[in-house]
């Protein structure tokens, strides 16, 4: 199991080349974001997902989802957005959403370092940010 670190060492993630496919191959947990880079108070995180997440919103943070592998559906209260490999969506702060993947998908997240994965929902699916070792 990965050791969680809510305040990753900036030197660990600065000025390093990252191969996304290799980084994804280093973990199996789903719905457990891993920090791979940090810049200007923003985190670049990788997460593997499958199934439905919880409905939630982020009061103060926009959230970018970029599909690296597979397909991801972002359910919004007024519509559904389907994303394939190489496609991204920015969910603005305050917008309630639920990510869903019928099969495992690999997602790159770009969001402020303060972003909690479950946003307003909280609960048992809330996790800290892990770091790849």
Summarize the structure.
The protein has 133 residues and is mainly β.
Write structural notes for this entry.
This protein is mainly beta and 133 residues long. The chain has a single domain, classed as Jelly Rolls, CATH 2.60.120.10. Helices cover 7% and strands 41% of the residues. The protein contains 2 helices and 8 strands; from the N terminus they run ααββββββββ. The protein has helices spanning 10-13, 20-24; strands at 34-39, 42-52, 63-69, 72-76, 80-83, 88-91, 97-112, 130-131. Strands 1, 2, 3, 4, 5, 6, 7 and 8 form an 8-stranded mixed sheet that branches. β4 and β5 form a beta hairpin.
Annotate the secondary structure layout.
Layout: H1 10-13, H2 20-24, E1 34-39, E2 42-52, E3 63-69, E4 72-76, E5 80-83, E6 88-91, E7 97-112, E8 130-131
**Highest-level CATH class:** Mainly Beta
Strand segment tally: 8
Tally of domains: 1
* pLDDT averaged over residues: 86
Radius of gyration based on Cα positions: 14 Å
Elements, N to C (H/E): HHEEEEEEEE
Content of β-strand: 35-45%
Q: How would you name the CATH homologous superfamily? A: Jelly Rolls
Structural class, from helix and strand content? mainly beta
CATH topology: Jelly Rolls
What is the 3D shape?
globular
């Amino acid at each position: 199991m990965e050791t969680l670190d809510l305040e990753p060492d900036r030197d660990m993630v600065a000025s390093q080349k990252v191969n996304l496919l290799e980084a994804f191959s280093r973990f199996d947990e789903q719905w457990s974001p891993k920090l791979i880079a940090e810049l200007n108070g923003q985190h670049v995180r990788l997460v593997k997902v499958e199934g439905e997440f919880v409905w939630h919103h982020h009061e103060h943070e926009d959230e970018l989802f970029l599909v690296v592998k597979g397909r991801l559906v972002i359910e919004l209260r007024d519509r559904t957005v389907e994303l394939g490999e190489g496609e991204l969506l920015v969910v603005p702060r305050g917008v309630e959403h639920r990510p869903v993947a019928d099969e495992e998908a690999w997602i790159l997240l770009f969001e402020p370092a303060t972003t909690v994965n479950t946003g307003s929902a909280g609960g048992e699916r809330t996790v800290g940010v892990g770091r790849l070792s």
